[in-house]
Specification:
The chain is an all-alpha fold. The protein has 2 domains: 2-60; 70-277, Orthogonal Bundle (MetI-like fold), CATH 1.10.3720. It contains 14 helices and no strands.
Length: 281
C-alpha cells in the first residue's frame, strides 16, 4: 500500500513537471523567436524558421533610423515614464495603505470599498472624462499626464493594504510615536524597511504596466519626439516598414527584452511579496 502511494505521488509529480515544462516552452519560444528574428535579415526570415541568431541586428537598426523611427529616443522616453511612474505608484500607494491600516477614522470602510470599486472599473470607461480633465489643466502632450494620476492607483493601494495588514505591528508604530517619531518618520524608517518585498512586487507590476502603456499615451501624447516605445512600435504597421521584417522584429524585441530582464532579476520578490500579502494573523 505504501509503495502504491509513493508510485502515485511520483506519477503525479512527473505529470505536474511535464505540464510546467510544456507551459515554459509555449511561453519562451515565441519570445525567443522575436529576439532571433530581430537579428536576421528580411530574406533570412522569408526563407523559414530558425532558432539561431544571425548577424543583421545593426543593419535592422540602421533601417529603423533611416526611415524615421528613433528607437533609442523611444526607449529613453519609455524608461523615463516607467521609472517615474513606478516611484510615484509605489510610494503613494503604500503611504495611503499605511493610513488605512494604522489609523482609525469614520468612513474608513467606505473609503476602502470605494478603492475596491475603482479597481473593478475599466480604464476605457473613464478615458473621455480623464482626457477632458487633463486638457483643462494643461497636461495633454506631457508625461505628467501619464505619471501624476498614478498617485491614486487603486490597484496598487489595494495590494499594499493587504500586504501591510500582514507585516505591520501596531505596537511597533505606537512605540515609535512614544519615542517622538513623526508619522512620516515612522513610515519612512520603520514601515518601508519592513515592506521591502511588497514594495518590490508593486514596483515590478507598476514598471511593466507603465512600460507597456499604449492606450493612455496614444490619446494624451501627440508630439512624435515624446512617443514611447509602444507608440513607436505601432508605427511599424505603416507601409514604409511593410517589407522590412527584420526591422519590425527588432522594434518588437526592444519592447520585450527590458521586461524579461526585470522579471529575471526581481522575480523572487514577486513570490515572497504575494505570499506575505496572503498571510494574516
Amino acid at each position: 500500500m505504501f509503495k502504491d502511494y509513493r508510485f502515485t505521488t511520483n506519477l503525479l509529480r512527473v505529470f505536474v513537471y511535464t505540464v510546467l515544462v510544456i507551459l515554459l516552452i509555449v511561453t519562451i519560444v515565441p519570445i525567443w523567436l522575436v529576439v532571433v528574428n530581430a537579428s536576421r535579415s528580411t530574406l533570412e526570415i522569408q526563407q523559414g524558421l530558425s532558432f539561431l541568431p544571425s548577424t543583421h541586428t545593426l543593419d535592422n537598426y540602421g533601417t529603423l533610423l533611416g526611415r524615421g523611427l528613433d528607437l533609442g529616443r523611444g526607449f529613453m522616453n519609455s524608461l523615463f515614464v516607467a521609472f517615474c511612474s513606478t516611484l510615484v505608484t509605489v510610494y503613494f500607494s503604500f503611504l495611503t495603505a499605511y493610513g488605512l491600516v494604522v489609523y482609525k477614522f469614520k468612513g474608513k470602510k467606505l473609503f476602502y470599498n470605494l478603492i475596491v470599486a475603482l479597481v473593478l472599473i475599466p480604464l476605457q470607461f473613464s478615458i473621455i472624462g480623464f482626457y477632458q480633465y487633463m486638457s483643462k489643466i494643461g497636461l495633454t502632450d506631457s508625461y505628467a499626464s501619464l505619471i501624476l494620476p498614478l498617485i491614486a492607483n487603486a490597484g496598487a493601494v489595494f495590494f499594499a493594504k493587504q500586504y501591510l495588514e500582514a507585516v505591520v505591528v501596531q505596537d511597533l508604530v505606537d512605540a515609535a510615536r512614544i519615542d517622538g517619531a513623526s508619522e512620516f518618520a515612522t513610515f519612512h524608517r520603520i514601515i518601508l524597511p519592513l515592506a521591502v518585498p511588497g514594495l518590490m512586487t508593486t514596483g515590478i507590476f507598476a514598471f511593466v504596466a507603465a512600460w507597456n502603456n499604449f492606450f493612455n499615451a496614444f490619446i494624451l501624447i501627440t508630439t512624435r519626439d515624446k512617443y514611447t516605445l509602444p507608440m513607436l512600435v505601432q508605427t511599424l504597421r505603416g507601409d514604409v516598414y511593410r517589407t522590412e521584417y527584420g526591422a519590425i522584429y527588432l522594434g518588437l524585441a526592444v519592447t520585450v527584452v527590458p521586461i524579461i530582464i526585470i522579471y529575471a532579476i526581481f522575480s523572487r520578490y514577486i513570490v515572497s511579496g504575494i505570499a506575505m500579502g496572503a498571510l494574516k494573523e
